[in-house]
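Example record

Each entry pairs one chain with its bound ligand, zinc ion.
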Amino acid sequence: MSQRRTEEGDLKAFQELIHVDGNGCHEYMGGLASNGYGIFQAGGKSVLAHIYAWELVNGPVPEGMVIRHSCDNKACVNAMDSLGGFEGHLVLGSQQDNMDDKVRRDRICRNPRKLVRVSPAERDAMVKLSREGATYYRIGKTLGRDQLTVKRAILSYGKLAA
Ligand SMILES: [Zn+2]
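Structure tokens for the complex follow.
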């Protein structure tokens, strides 16, 4: 089971962890670091999910540069506009740009992403319904949760079971 995934396997696993929301953000559904950035396992190593996404499209991040979020959503991994644009929400910038972003962000005080915790019993119920063929949407309706919460809970369960 601990066999290392191929690069294609990594990519496929990554794509399965993306939830496209109404703002065009590609919300990363995998684990998050305490600073809010997504963490992905690629090539047997933990990497930052947004950097992984950006590098898939653009190649390695140039030295001394950082990847910024134009959407201010740290869990977003939208490296390319799905409608055929070029940049997506991840943009290359300098360390200074990144500092400026942080100052601006603290000033406007955005709503942090809502991370809803579900109990183990509730998650088991979600997994059970999912195995019976219910969609995330349907399960959410049944249990009074939103679709994203359901998806996150079920994916995290898969990870624990693996
Ligand atoms: Zn975004």
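The mean pLDDT is 84.
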